[in-house]
Every structure is written in C-alpha cells, then in structure tokens.
From TrEMBL:
Gene3D superfamilies tied to this protein: 1.10.1740.10, Tetratricopeptide repeat domain (1.25.40.10), Winged helix-like DNA-binding domain superfamily/Winged helix DNA-binding domain (1.10.10.10)
Transmembrane segments: none
Family named by the database record: Belongs to the sigma-70 factor family. ECF subfamily.
Keyword Transcription regulation: yes
InterPro entries documented for this protein: DUF6596, RNA_pol_sigma70_r2, RNA_pol_sigma70_r4_t2, RNA_pol_sigma_r2, RNA_pol_sigma_r3/r4-like, TPR-like_helical_dom_sf, WH-like_DNA-bd_sf
Name the UniProt record assigns to this protein: RNA polymerase sigma-70 factor, ECF subfamily
GO BP annotations listed: DNA-templated transcription initiation
Length: 411
C-alpha cells in the first residue's frame, strides 16, 4: 500500500462524517449527501496519487462532493424541487434553542436517531452516515445479514425524506426523551472503534473512539445534569485510556490482565474517575444510577487497581448485580460470570455461562469466555473446541491472533 493510499484511508476515517454532515445541511437529503461524498472519495483515489494530497483534504473533499451533488441535481432536472424540499426541512422546523451547539455532525446524529425511526434503523443509519462504517461492518455489529442491514438504511433515509424529519438539534424540551437513543448509537460507534468488527480494518480505530467521545462531550454540554450522558462519557474515557496497551507490537489483542498499566492514559483515567465520583454523589443523594453510570463505575474499579491482583472483584460483582436488574441481557450476564470466576472459581462461573448458550451461540465472546474457564479447569480438549468456535466467529484480526495463541498453548 502506498503512502497516498494510507492517507486516503486515514482521511476517510477522519472526514467522512464531516463531509456527509455538511452536504446534508446544504441539500437536506441524505441520499445526495452519501452518494456525493462517496464520489468525492472515489475522485480522491483517482487524483491524489498523481496530483498529490491537498493541503486541506477535508475542505477539498467537501468542495468536490458539493460539486458532485449539484451535478446530480442538474442531471435529474429537479433543481427547483430539491431546493424546495430543502427549504421544507429547514423553514418548517422550529428554530434551534438559544445556545445550542452549532455542529453539523451533532445535527446529523439527532436526525439519524429520530424516534420516528425504528431503533435498528437509527443504529444502522448513524453508523453508516456518521461513523462511516460499511454495510458489512454494520451487519457484523448487529449480527444480521448484509442485505437486511442495507434495507434498514435505505428505508430509514426514505422515511426521513418522506416525513420531512428536521435536520437540527432538538429543542430543550425534547432533548431528554431523545438522548437515550443517541447514547446507544454513540456507544455502538465507540465499541466499533474500540474493537473493530471487520477483518480488513485496523483492530482499534482511534478515529471512531475519538469521534464518539467528542460527540458525547457535545451532548454533555447540552445536558450537563443528565447522569447517563456523564456516565457514558466516563465509561468511554476509562476504556479509551487503556487503548495504548490493548494491542501488542505484533498485532495481538492484549487482555486486561496482561496489559501494561503504566501505558494507560492517566489524564483520561483521572477525568473518568472524577465523573464517576460526581455520579456516586448524586446516587447518594437519591438519584438512582442508570446503565452507563454503573458500567463506568465497574471500569473505575478496574482502572483503580495498580495490578490485576489488586482488583476489588467483590465490588465489581456487586455492581454487576445492580446492572443485571436494570439490563438483564445475556451479554451482561456473561460479563458478570467473569467476576464470579474470580470470586467463586471457574466451575461456578462455567455453570452460569453454560446457561447462556442458547442466547449467545453466535457470539464469539461467549465461546472465548467458556474456553478460558475450561482451560482453567484443565479440560483442554473442550477448551480447544471452544477456542476454535470463538476464532471462527471473531472478525477482529488482533482478537483472532490472541485466541489462536491461547488455543495453541493448550496441552
């Protein structure tokens, strides 16, 4: 891969959302924005190797994409209709609340996460339009087929256009009800960056984690008293702080127990801990914590331990018990079982994990967890089979490398 190719890939990660958001704001049409942005990047692939990378790649791409969009409108001979349609999107909408953050990508997120859309459509559309993920990557994140994912995105864009869903930050009255779906999407975007699902991408995509954190900070500025916004930001910061130690120089995922804690980002950890303490004070005052606040507290316990052996597993288990009452999902139960293994032993944890088989049969982390518990119990043959299944289902190359090594170490 040439240096220019690497630049194009990096710029795509960094600028996709900006270009799409700017075009959506100008033309009021997600289809036009996405197609023109894609054409602009295709033009960059053709021209930059010969002409050189422009001084401001984002501005070049936005300008090129805008010209592509105008050309499409002219080709379709519907220029007046498109302009009228854009005016309907903006002029019929109430003005944004005073002091609202002027950020095109934030507007784009609230548009993609509009409650008129089904939750699955909101997630898929935002990951595509804001996160820049491909349809195969989104399909892996949802554990559904690529065709179903593509249909969700298409239907969502069609509904936005037909219903004239406004491209704006919601009013102050609407924000609390709307923010939950946005947080779900942002956490999905962050997770895709924290551990990419695609086998042909970087195992850890800092562009996505940084973008999710940036947008969460913006939402926190809009809703400074919302506990779940603060909780999600703290959770992201505490996870992001461990990123420098997550992948070995050889490209293998490094589990938490084996990470060099000296490489963790102390500044991010301090900020995350401060947010968690603020939410603990609010909980003490009678404000029950939500899902993200509890997850942030769990990660605060992990990042407070200087060594793995210093981890307060009883506190982590108590937090998971609290979380299970809010979110009785099988993934939460699986993570709880890991804490159980540290306190009550792998045999007790394995029994809890095996009860999740029917619901998590296609989830690679289920098989990886089970393989590790079987290894600790000395059941090497069963552990190897579980590792094989986890490797088959895992898409991330760094994670596959780690699972393969652990399997090959079995007697």
């Amino acid at each position: 891969m040439s240096d220019v190719d690497e630049v194009i890939i990096r710029v795509h990660h960094e600028e996709w959302a900006r270009v799409v958001a700017a075009l959506t704001r100008r033309f009021g049409d997600l289809d036009i924005a996405e197609e023109a942005a894609a054409e602009a990047f295709a033009t960059a692939v053709e021209r930059w190797p010969a002409d050189g990378v422009p001084p401001n790649p984002g501005a070049w791409l936005t300008t090129t994409a805008s010209r592509k969009a105008i050309d499409r409108v002219r080709r379709e001979n519907k220029r007046d209709d498109k302009h009228k349609e854009a005016r309907m999107v903006y002029d019929d909408s109430p003005p944004e609340p005073p002091g609202a953050i002027d950020d095109d990508r934030l507007r784009l997120i609230f548009t993609c996460c509009h409650p008129a859309l089904a939750m699955e459509a909101r997630l898929a559309l935002t990951l595509r339009m804001v996160g820049g993920l491909t349809v195969p990557e989104i399909a892996r994140a949802f554990l559904v087929s690529e065709s179903a994912t593509g249909q969700r995105i298409t239907r969502a864009k069609t509904k936005i256009k037909a219903a004239h869903i406004p491209y704006r930050v919601p009013s102050a009255e609407d924000l609390p009800a709307r923010v939950s779906g946005v947080l779900t999407v942002l956490f999905l975007v962050f997770n895709e960056g924290y551990l990419a699902t695609g086998s042909d991408t970087d195992p850890v995509r800092h562009d996505l984690t940084a973008e999710a954190i940036r947008l969460t900070r913006l939402i926190r500025a809009l809703l400074p008293d919302d506990g779940e916004v603060a909780g999600l930001l703290a959770l992201m910061l505490l996870i992001e702080a461990r990123r420098p130690a997550r992948v070995s120089p050889g490209g293998e995922l490094v589990p938490l127990a084996e990470q060099d804690r000296g490489a963790w980002d102390a500044t991010l950890i301090a900020e995350g801990h401060r947010l968690v303490r603020e939410r603990l004070a609010a909980a003490a005052a009678g404000m029950a914590p939500g899902r993200y606040q509890i997850l942030a507290a769990i990660n605060a316990v992990h990042t407070s331990a200087r060594e793995m052996r210093d981890t307060d597993w009883s506190q982590i288990l108590a937090l998971y018990d609290q979380l299970v009452r809010l979110d009785p999902s099988p993934v939460i139960a699986l993570n709880r079982a890991i804490a159980v293994a540290e306190l009550d032993g792998p045999e007790v944890a394995l029994a809890a994990v095996d009860r999740l088989e029917q619901r998590l049969a296609d989830y690679h982390a289920y098989h990886a967890t089970r393989a590790d518990l079987l290894r600790r119990l000395g059941r090497s043959q069963e552990s190897r089979a579980a590792y094989d299944k986890a490797i088959e289902l895992a898409g991330n190359t760094a994670e596959t490398a780690n699972l393969t090594r652990r399997r090959d170490q079995l007697r």
